[in-house]
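Subject: Sanity check before I submit

Could someone independently write out the structure tokens for this chain? I want to compare against mine line by line before I put it in a report. The sequence has 330 residues.
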Amino acid sequence: MLLALALPATAAAGRSAATVSGQILSLSTAAQTLTVQTASGNQAVLRVTAASHLWRNGSPVGLADLALRDAVLTAQVDSRTLRVVNLRARGPAVTTTRGGLAGIDPSLQSLSVTTPAGPRDFILTSATLFVRNGHAATAADLTARDSILVHALAGAASEPVAADVEADGPEASQVEGTISAVSGSDVTITPSQGNAVTVHVSDSTMIRLHTSTGEVAGTLADLKTGLRAEAGFDPVSFVAFRIEAAPADGGGQQQVSHVEGTVSAVDAGAGTITITPRTGSPVALTTDSATRITRNDAAATLADIKVGDHAAAEYVTATNVATRPTRAIQ
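---
Independent answer below. Compare away.
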């Protein structure tokens, strides 16, 4: 959700100019945009062109060199088009890697990116921010067709730690329901309401199986009729980017509960958060790298959520692990 941003206008060389400052919430090298949240909580989507001048920590940079969480000290923009004229940002030292998605560890603790010099691996932590097509995401939302941009903390001696990951790729359609047929490389999923959808499994389709002990990589042979499944697919070709399913033993078919209320405790190090509803007992939840967390509709980590925030979460009833988007509103 984007809030309207009132920008002060000044006359500059015959055009209406404005100044923006705040923090970078998301960026897209494909769309050539970045979203800045101001101190008042408003968000502005700024356009970057070949004529835009960008600096980070005093050095000229390109859009891909700006990182999520960077402080925008000042950005001069055209108030009519929000095109960036000059932008100065500050942030910790990071390295920038661009390429394609080579793979994700089933536990979602590592990411591999294809580069001209070969694959490069990154460690994912609870502090890693994910954005896909300019929106908050998780590692599970990435597809093999995405262009990947990774900012890693500088100075890592071995496998670098990803501070943030930006992905750009085709928008996916979604279907969730029961697998009603598997024929060759085609999988038909029938939702509880609406028409059945048949998606095609290609070599690039990522298949994940959810079990009672965690998540594992799967293959087409693991997809059986009767399983619950969710697929993201190209709306034109119907090629599946990803398919997530419960295994035949039913271990992944878990009841999900919902809680909404006030954050009464949060421990980013332990990955836990407690939400106290208006009525009823507090609910203590555990998060993992598959939990999508947003704050004020922007990608966030558990460390960004504060006691007193209004929050909502969906979680596995049996384990209290937050599996669906956890959102906090300041």
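---
OP: Matches mine. For the report I'm noting this point. The first strand starts at residue 10 and ends at 12.
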